[in-house]
Amino acid sequence: MTRAALLVLADGRFPAGGHAHSGGAEEAVKAGRITGAAGLEAFCRGRLHTAGLVAAALAAAAAAGADPAELDAAADARTPSPALRLAARKLGRQLARAARATWPSPELDALARAFPKGAHQPVVLGLTARAAGLGPADAAYCAVYESVSGPATAVVRLLSLDPFEATAVLARLAPELDRVVDTAVAAGHAARSDGTDALPSASAPLLEIGAEAHAAWPVRLFAS
Questions:
Q1: Cα 62 to Cα 139: distance, rounded to the nearest angstrom
Q2: pTM (2 decimals)?
Q3: Radius of gyration of the chain, Cα coordinates, nearest whole angstrom
Q4: CA distances from 93 to 38, 97, 113, 210, 218 (A)
Q5: How far apart are alpha carbons 73 and 185 in whole angstroms?
Q6: What is the number of other CB atoms lying within 10 angstroms of the CB of residue 171?
Q7: Count of beta carbons in the 10 Å neighbourhood of residue 220
Q8: Mean pLDDT per segment of 10 residues, for the chain of length 224 residues?
Q9: What distance in Å separates the CA atoms of residue 140 and residue 99, rounded to the nearest whole number?
Q10: Which label site among 91, 93, 94, 203 has the fewest CB atoms less than 10 Å from its CB?
Q11: What is the secondary structure of the chain as a DSSP string?
């Protein structure tokens, strides 16, 4: 495969279901923590260095060849919120469907059999990267970019924020994405050799609490 496969996998139009999720931004908007571009940037930065880092390390480890079942258990342990665990598995199931149709792979088939209700999305992402001929850094970049681009896109819809401002937020965060990817890839390689305890466990309690509150709303625009 060519590196262009990364563009396909990272494309927001790839049918992996991410467009239906705000990454916690919908609850943060309602709570008043995001009211414009500055609040969005602060939210995305916090998400990048916590949930984004963990997801990127899991994806990098899966792409490097670590045991997917062990990684899935590690993802569960790092996701206290039942609502977020459910969302991660739904996204993992949808990504697996799209990935198996795009890059057929025995590893993806085995994962689908082992987790019929879906494995955690970052684990599926890492195996998808392997199936596409990509490496751990590519998988980690997809994970970190998704961790900030999802909320940015959601806030454009939720607040009618100028899309140019949202894109500028992502551009300002780019150097931090690079640093998080470096950390995640190192952790992913360590997890393959030393076990999942080598993976980061950066927590974002407000995201977890917000996810539980959001799941109880009778009406919402986004699934999470």
A1: 9
A2: 0.96
A3: 16
A4: 34, 6, 11, 23, 24
A5: 19
A6: 9
A7: 14
A8: 86 91 97 97 98 98 97 97 97 97 96 96 98 97 97 97 97 98 98 95 94 96 94
A9: 17
A10: 203
A11: --TTHHHHHH-TTSSSSGGG--TTHHHHHHTTS-SSHHHHHHHHHHHIIIIIHHHHHHHHHHHHT--HHHHHHHHHHT---HHHHHHHHHHHHHHHHHHHHHS--HHHHHHHHH-TT---HHHHHHHHHHHTT--HHHHHHHHHHHHHHHHHHHHHHHH---HHHHHHHHHHHHHHHHHHHHHHHHHHHHHHHH-GGGS-----HHHHHHHHHHHT-SS-SS--
Length of the chain: 224
Query: Taking the alpha carbons of 86, 91, 93, 96 in that order, is the dihedral positive or negative?
Result: negative
User: What type of residue sits at position 172?
Assistant: R
